[in-house]
Amino acid sequence: MSAAASLTDAFSAIGTAFESQHPDTDVVFNFAGSSTLREQILEGAPVDVFASANMANMEAVVAASDVSGGPEVFAGNTLEIAVPPGNPAGVTGLADFGRPDLLIGLCAEGVPCGDFGREALEAAGVAPSIDTDEPNVRALLTKIELGELDAGIVYATDIASADVDGVEIPAADNVAATYPIAVIASAPNPDGARSFVDFVVSDAGREILSEYGFSPP
């Protein structure tokens, strides 16, 4: 199962719940940036299910005829600023991302959290002073947790799962993330893949997603 890094905690819990209902199934996850997962699938990696943090990466896989059936949107998310515990740099909003005296991180361009973060900064009229582009949201969060960065833009769901504090982004500048999931056409275990997708979009799966802060589709 290839899934966006922002789904790590929620999908780990979903995998455990799914295995309890299917004791003969061992769910193995590959968590990474959605663009990385897209390239792996397009290059022929053996993948049963793809869950992306945006539609663009899923659409690229669909366009290559690598999806069995159509993708289903199963969750939503928004953005939030992550800062080290205690917010030592006193970050109050997106405007601080233009301060050259701060160490600022974003996810890399092409990665959904990176594209969304840049979209939010543009909406706020901020030209960011970026010190690092990370390959996925978990890598960005780790640097913020360690105090190597003063701030970064992540998903709202990530704030609760990491040792960081959050600074809200106003709705006018925020970006809504849409998460689609699909069975891969060349899935080694198509029946198991279909069952897993069905579980994710079921009431039980959505209840778990809600517990981890994801919004309904």
Question: How does this structure look, described?
Answer:
With 217 residues, the chain is an alpha/beta fold. It has two domains: 2-76 and 179-211, D-Maltodextrin-Binding Protein, domain 2 (3-Layer(aba) Sandwich), CATH 3.40.190; 79-168, 3-Layer(aba) Sandwich (D-Maltodextrin-Binding Protein, domain 2), CATH 3.40.190.120. Helix content is 36%, strand content 23%. The protein contains eight helices and ten strands. A five-stranded mixed β-sheet has the order 2-1-3-10-4, sandwiched between helices. It has a five-stranded mixed β-sheet with strand order 7-6-8-5-9, with helices on both faces. Strand 1 (2-4), helix 1 and strand 2 form a beta-alpha-beta unit. It is globular and about 55 Å long. The mean pLDDT is 96.
Termini gap: 20 Å
Q: Spell out the CATH superfamily of the largest domain.
A: Periplasmic binding protein-like II
Quick one: CATH class of the largest domain? Answer: Alpha Beta
Percent in strands: 15-25%
Unreliable runs: none
Tally of individual helices:
8
Return the average pLDDT rounded to an integer: 96
Q: Any idea what the shape is?
A: globular
Number of β-strand runs: 10
The major sheet is characterized as: 5 strands, mixed
Indicate the CATH topology of the largest domain.
D-Maltodextrin-Binding Protein, domain 2
The CATH architecture of the largest domain can be given as 3-Layer(aba) Sandwich
SSE string, helices as H and strands as E: EHEHEHEEEHEHEHEEHH
Structural class label: alpha/beta
> Strand order, biggest sheet?
2-1-3-10-4
What helical percentage do the residues reach? 25-40%
Task: Return Rg in Å.
Answer: 17 Å
- Counted up, domains total 2
